[in-house]
């Protein structure tokens, strides 16, 4: 099957540096919630066996449908809709300066992965794009504000963002701090404004969506990941695997999870459907980071002509560094497989976008 | 009656007001003190909404004397302390020291250090006024205090106002560094909404209908966003360092958005949650706009008054070197008249409500007007 080309036969893994999980002071709530054996690594044979078992007819049928699906066209079309909606959501009202800054950051481009996930999740449970658009815009506002604050000189100090000067370079730090705050506030106001929806939407669902989104981005969500990442930077010893996972689940996966879940909530999904979509999002969020780490190592090896082992010692903590390249690839496969298995049981005609997105994240080359 | 307790402070603010001219039977006659009808500051009054005098719903069953009597028996100080204590307990529960501890420490550091909790208490008082109760109001009361706190955290940052101290202790960024301070502010903003929207935070026996929670979220977002609190901060940034004085309408814009609007949100959200009728919510909104602006006008008057006493200079000379203030633009006397107008208007908006339940808001308006610092 195509999805196993991630396991090359030529590269050998570096030594596995499995740190003990006791480097944390307190248990990881996210790990418990995910209920995954991330700390145990099945052999390649076991994985292959598990994969064969999963080749059920419905999965095969889903794969066939997915192949005919114009993923690129889908992504571009949805991104365009989102861009139009974002443009309307933040008009250039008084005071012009702050709205200019907000628009500069928000409309600078980007693939709009999170809003598209939100829309796809809404559609998969029976909703439609118009219904999903307000929460979709909200997650993009939040994603943008976290980048805007992150780029500040006293944070990550990035002068460029999406190929353009970062907000603070153009507007100064004070306006940038405020633009981020305003985008965060606006995201909730946007979801809560019933006028933004095509027809009457249940207030109870909006309340759930607001509660979910705010939880995903707060001090036990996105911010938690950023804080732990900051605490882990610059320390001598290798970061433990569970801490690495915590960072990725919170810094990256959390907002993807929020996007998918609120799309499903607003679309009227059942609790079971929402749970499965949540797990799908957690898997692809982590998958994104694992693949990122694998690509870093792979590129580095080719460019520098060194073995993977030598590179790993000097890099920041990554999955290949902790568990080796081969096990990292297997982990990626397992995550991809798990993500897709969450989509079984949904209407195969509607799962295509999410299946393709998972594949895209897994197989991209940059 | 209740005027007497404020007499010593009110004279300083309203020097024309002599003890004998105050009566216990009605609202303090501040507008008559100078014998001059207050000039029409159409921009200022227009901004807060012309009251009440055009369409007051006088509660015929509650004569004016009972208002003052009820108010006189009201232990305002005890009320404020009691409600603030309840709010502090709720805030403590709302931000437990969960993992990662550092961010929650920073959030708690700034949130729990103290403060009179004026905004949460306004929220609770408004909720009770329209028939709700403290437990129903508490999540939103906490939310507005979280918002207030996060705006202070971000405001104190070196790249913003660069304040090293806040509420008597080092500012958040001094204690935890700038990155954590920015994130703590962001996290408090997110938590405000999640706390407000989570049905589990409300008394199970008296839940709030979801459509009211949605309204409350919308109101909060509007008040703190790019056309609310942030708008005031941005315009203030734009206006700072400009040598010529800014116009009165710009000054008012800044004050309404930087200060008054969060007070407005506190009151309005409390009234929404408490199930207030639309017209009740709107009158409370107007009340809040009056006291919000009143707060700033009094602030400016106090700054000037203290400065004159301390430096032994005339008010006129000080005015030239100060940042733009109401006394600078209108003169001290007219600023006092404006304060008097705003106080009177605030109270007019409360007419028609149950006088006993309106007592906290009435007293709060007086407190804002007559405080000495």
Q: What's a concise summary of this model?
A:
By secondary structure, chain A is mostly helical.
CA-atom Rg of chain B in angstroms: 21 Å
- SSE topology string of chain A: HHHHHHHEEHHHHHHHHHH
CATH C-level name of chain A: Mainly Alpha
Which stretches of chain B are low in confidence, meaning pLDDT under 50 for 5 or more residues running? 1-65, 311-318
Summing up helix and strand content along with how strands pair, one would put the structural category of chain B as mainly alpha
Could you tell me how far the N terminus lies from the C terminus of chain A, measured between alpha carbons in angstroms?
22 Å
Arithmetic mean of pLDDT of chain A:
81
Please state how the strands of the largest beta sheet of chain A are arranged side by side: 1-2
Indicate the proportion of strand residues of chain A. Answer: under 5%
Task: Give structural notes.
Chain A: Belongs to the FPP/GGPP synthase family. Chain A: Pathway: Isoprenoid biosynthesis. Chain A: Its cofactor is Mg(2+). Chain A: This is Heterodimeric geranylgeranyl pyrophosphate synthase large subunit 1, chloroplastic. The complex is a heterodimer of chains A (366) and B (373). Chain A is mostly helical and 366 residues long. Chain A is 68% helix and 1% strand. Chain A has a two-stranded antiparallel sheet. In chain A, a hairpin with a 2-residue loop joins strand 1 (160-161) and strand 2. Chain A is globular, with a radius of gyration of 21 Å. Chain B has a single domain (70-370), classed as Farnesyl Diphosphate Synthase, CATH 1.10.600. Chain B is built from 18 helices and 2 strands. In chain B, helix 7 packs antiparallel against helix 8 (134-156) and helix 8 packs antiparallel against helix 13. With 373 residues, chain B is mostly helical. A two-stranded antiparallel sheet of chain B has the order 1-2. Residues 1-65 and 311-318 of chain B have low confidence and may be disordered. Chain B has helices spanning 2-5, 7-13, 42-48, 64-72, 76-94, 101-111, 118-129, 134-156, 172-176, 178-197, 210-224, 229-239, 248-273, 278-311, 315-321, 326-330, 332-350, 355-370; strands at 165-166, 169-170. Helices cover 67% and strands 1% of the residues of chain B. Chain B starts with a helix and ends with a helix.
């Amino acid at each position: 099957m195509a999805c196993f080309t991630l396991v090359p036969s030529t590269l050998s893994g570096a030594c596995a540096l499995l740190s003990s999980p006791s480097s944390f002071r307190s248990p990881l709530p996210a790990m418990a919630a995910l209920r995954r054996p991330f700390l145990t690594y099945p052999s390649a044979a076991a994985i292959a066996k598990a994969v064969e078992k999963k080749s059920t007819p419905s999965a095969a049928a889903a794969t066939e449908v997915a192949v005919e699906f114009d993923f690129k066209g889908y992504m571009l079309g949805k991104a365009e809709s989102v861009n139009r909606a974002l443009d309307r959501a933040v008009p250039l009202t008084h005071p012009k300066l702050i709205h200019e800054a907000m628009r500069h950051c928000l409309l600078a481009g980007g693939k709009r992965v999170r809003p598209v996930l939100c829309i796809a999740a809404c559609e998969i449970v029976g909703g439609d794009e118009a219904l999903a658009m307000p929460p979709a815009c909200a997650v993009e506002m939040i994603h943008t504000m976290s980048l805007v604050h992150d780029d500040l000189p006293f944070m990550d100090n990035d002068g460029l963002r999406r190929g353009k000067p970062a907000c603070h370079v153009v507007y100064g730090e004070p306006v940038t701090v405020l633009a981020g705050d305003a985008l965060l506030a606006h995201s909730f106001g946007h979801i809560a404004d019933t006028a933004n929806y095509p027809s009457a939407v249940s207030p109870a669902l909006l309340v759930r969506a607001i509660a979910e989104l705010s939880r995903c981005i707060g001090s036990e969500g996105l911010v938690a990941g950023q804080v732990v990442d900051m605490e882990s930077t610059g320390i001598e010893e290798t970061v433990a695997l569970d801490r690495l996972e915590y960072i990725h689940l919170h810094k990256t996966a959390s907002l993807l999870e929020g996007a998918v879940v609120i799309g499903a909530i607003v679309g009227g999904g059942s609790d079971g459907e929402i749970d499965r979509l949540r797990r799908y999002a957690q898997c692809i969020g982590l998958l994104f980071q694992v693949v990122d780490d694998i690509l870093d190592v792979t590129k580095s090896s080719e460019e520098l002509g060194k073995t993977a082992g030598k590179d790993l010692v000097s890099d920041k903590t990554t999955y290949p560094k902790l568990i080796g390249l081969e096990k990292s690839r297997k982990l990626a496969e397992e995550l991809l497989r798990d993500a897709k298995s969450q989509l079984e049981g949904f209407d195969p005609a509607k799962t295509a976008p999410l299946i393709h997105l998972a594949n895209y994240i897994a197989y991209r080359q940059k | 009656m209740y005027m007497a307790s404020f007499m010593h402070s009110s004279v300083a603010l309203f020097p024309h007001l002599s003890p004998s001219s105050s009566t216990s039977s009605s609202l303090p006659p501040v507008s008559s003190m100078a014998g001059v009808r207050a000039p029409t500051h159409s921009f200022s009054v227009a901004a807060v909404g012309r009251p009440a005098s055009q369409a007051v719903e006088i509660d015929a069953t509650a004569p004016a004397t009972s208002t003052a009597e009820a108010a006189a028996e009201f232990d305002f100080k005890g009320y404020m302390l009691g409600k603030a204590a309840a709010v502090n307990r709720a805030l403590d529960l709302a931000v437990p020291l969960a993992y990662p501890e550092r961010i929650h420490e920073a959030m708690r550091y700034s949130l729990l250090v103290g403060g009179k909790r004026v905004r949460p208490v306004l929220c609770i008082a408004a909720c009770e006024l329209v028939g709700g109760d403290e437990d129903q109001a508490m999540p939103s009361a906490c939310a507005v205090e979280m918002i207030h706190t996060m705006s202070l955290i971000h405001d104190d940052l070196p790249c913003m106002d660069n304040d090293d101290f806040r509420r008597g202790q080092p500012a958040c960024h001094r204690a935890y560094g700038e990155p954590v301070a920015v994130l703590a502010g962001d996290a408090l903003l997110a938590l405000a909404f999640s706390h407000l929207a989570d049905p589990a935070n409300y008394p199970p026996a008296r839940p709030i209908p979801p459509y009211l929670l949605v309204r409350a979220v919308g109101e909060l977002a509007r008040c703190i966003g790019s056309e609310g609190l942030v708008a005031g901060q941005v315009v203030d940034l734009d206006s700072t360092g400009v040598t010529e004085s800014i116009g009165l309408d710009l000054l008012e814009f800044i004050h309404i958005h930087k200060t008054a609007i969060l007070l407005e949100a506190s009151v309005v959200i409390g009234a929404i949650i408490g199930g207030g009728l639309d017209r009740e919510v709107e009158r409370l909104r107007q009340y809040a706009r009056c006291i919000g602006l009143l707060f700033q006008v009094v602030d400016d008057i106090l700054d000037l008054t203290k400065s004159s006493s301390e430096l032994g200079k005339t008010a006129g000379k000080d005015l030239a070197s100060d940042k733009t203030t109401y006394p600078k633009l209108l003169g001290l006397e007219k600023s006092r008249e404006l304060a008097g107008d705003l106080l009177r208007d605030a109270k007019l908006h409360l007419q028609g409500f149950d006088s006993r339940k309106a007592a906290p808001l009435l007293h709060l308006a007086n407190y804002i007007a007559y405080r000495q610092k």
